[in-house]
Amino acid sequence: MEHPELEHDETARIVKLELEMDPTKRISSAQEHERAVAIFDLLDENQFKLSKHDGPYHLYMRTDQRHIHFDIRDVSDEMLVNFFMALGPLRRIMRDYFQVCDSYYDAIRTKSPSQIQAIDMGRRALHDEGSETLQDRLSNHATVDHATARRLFTLICVLTSKDKG
Are 85 and 137 contacting, i.e. CB atoms less than 8 angstroms apart? Predict the structure, then answer.
């Protein structure tokens, strides 16, 4: 689901993104890498527009493990919108995504290139499914393009991942 109306709107973007990570939870080096890349790529290129407020935006995200909290502010850090999104509709996709990611990282060490490619195709398909579900779930509050939804899905997965400590 692409949104051509976003392409020419220079204000329809996130210019700052922060995740509030649970300080007691440790994440794996692979998850830390995915988090850093997703934030870098998202800030480099994204299309995000609140339905009732112009951007650009600062986005703060956190979880209570049942919901993702979106705190969206203007560039002066004044509150624009604060909303919660239940994780229930994403749970199955995220569980499958975590399993396939584990298989993918194991396969990199031991499997043939064709086996790795097959697992990676499954991983990408689940990532796409998660981002499409996320786009739909966000649609009452914001319009986002597919690439931005993919990166946000990655960040939600990192925020909700199980402790690797």
Answer: yes
pLDDT of residue 22: 82
Please give the Cα distance from 18 to 21 (Å, whole number). Answer: 9
Q: What is the number of structural domains in the chain?
A: 1
Separation between Cα atoms, residue 8 and residue 5, nearest integer Å: 7
pLDDT at 162: 72
pLDDT in tens, 19-78: 998 888 888 888 888 899 999 999 999 999 999 999 999 999 999 989 999 999 999 999
Asked whether residue 135 is domain-assigned, the answer is yes
Q: Flag whether 43 is in a domain.
A: yes
**Amino acid identity of 94?**
M
Label residue 7 by pLDDT band (50, 70, 90).
low
> What is the spatial distance between Cα 20 and Cα 2, in angstroms, rounded to a whole number?
29
Q: CA dihedral in degrees (24, 30, 31, 33; nearest 10)?
A: 110
Tokens of residue 65, six digits: 């493990």
Cα of 78 vs its chain's centroid, Å:
23
Yes or no: say if 27 and 164 are a contact pair by the CB < 8 Å rule. Answer: yes
